[in-house]
Write a structure and sequence with these properties.
This protein is mainly alpha-helical. The protein is built from eleven helices and six strands. A hairpin with a 2-residue loop joins strand 2 and strand 3. InterPro entries: Cyclic_di-GMP/3'3'-cGAMP_PDE (IPR052020), HD/PDEase_dom (IPR003607), HD_domain (IPR006674), HD_GYP_dom (IPR037522), HDIG_dom (IPR006675).
């Protein structure tokens, strides 16, 4: 699996990348090891951060929880191991962590955002990645959070990566994220039906979304009754996120 390694010469400052290697990263092939005690500690950190999102903004938290469900199921569907899919679900739980630094006046605004408000909103992947780097979590989680708003055609943000330059973890999160936004009530819109959301997603194939990942997701929707009603990640009921058993099962690698 491709894992992002962030060069030491790149730093995060005020929610923006700065430095001589701006936007540059070195992608290397590494063996994904989640058996280590360090990874257990990482999962504890991520779950704690998810709780902080819940305390700060319940709407963002519930959205993240649903995205975790969709991302985990899609990852398993395309052949990821149970452990890899679980870790992607953990990344999904904190993918909007950076929004905790954005004011409610912007997050809950029903009208179109101004240019400055949009600029602040588009910083949230970098802000979230900066927080995760501060906790020294595995780069897998950092890259998923940092790049979940990149587009297949290179018109996303923050780095304008294109095609397979975008980590697969982020490509999966992008589809799951947008699907939940489309099917959820927001201050600025009513929810779409599953069929309407399906068509909207397909309209973005090859532009916003990786066509292969999107096709798998659409097929998953088609073969899964009541797809949006699922509340489980790897068999763990997300409604119990505050219960010790939820944390213990994630940490134990269930």
């Amino acid at each position: 699996m491709a894992i992002l390694v962030i060069q030491k010469s790149i730093i995060l400052n005020c929610g923006m990348w700065v430095g001589t290697d701006m936007w540059e990263s070195r992608v290397v092939a590494v063996k994904y090891l989640t058996h280590l005690e360090r990874d257990k500690e990482t999962r504890k950190v991520l779950l704690s951060l998810a709780q902080s999102i819940q305390e700060r903004d319940i709407v963002t938290y519930e959205h993240s929880r649903r995205v975790a469900v969709y991302a985990q199921r899609l990852a398993r569907y395309i052949g990821w191991s149970r452990r890899e899919a679980r870790d992607l679900a953990l990344a999904a739980l904190v993918h909007d962590l950076g929004k905790t630094w954005i004011g409610n006046d912007i997050l809950n605004k029903s009208a179109a955002l101004s240019t400055e408000e949009r600029r602040k909103m588009e910083r949230h992947p970098v802000t979230g990645a900066r927080i995760l780097i501060g906790y020294e979590v595995h780069p897998f989680y950092v890259e998923a959070v940092l790049y979940h708003h990149e587009s297949w055609n290179g018109q996303g943000y923050p780095a304008k990566l294109k095609g397979e330059e975008i980590p697969l973890s982020a490509r999966i999160l992008t589809v799951a994220d947008v699907y939940d936004v489309l099917t959820s009530q927001r201050p600025y819109k009513a929810p779409l039906t599953i069929d309407e959301a399906r068509e909207r997603l397909l309209a973005g194939s090859g532009t916003n979304f990786d066509p292969t990942v999107l096709q798998a997701f659409v097929h998953l929707i088609d073969v899964t009754p009541d797809f949006t009603l699922s509340q489980h990640v790897c068999g763990i009921n997300l409604k119990n996120i505050q219960q010790p058993t939820f944390y213990n099962m994630f940490i134990a690698g269930s």
